[in-house]
Amino acid sequence: LKFESVEFSDTCLGAPKPDEVCKQVVTPGLRVLLIAQGMLYEFHTDFAGYDIRSIGEPQIEPTHSPVG
Description:
0% of the residues lie in helices and 50% in strands.
């Protein structure tokens, strides 16, 4: 659907895993929104694509594209 450059406030890309310690340092990356089988998925990733994190639960696809 779309992707955008983001500066996350930590090395966990704003999505820490349970018991994970994150350095509080600005980390550049991407916010990615994908649609598959009528569901909207959000991911955060570093620019290299080594660290990809799913954000929340999938949502029903919106009837119009998210603004932003």
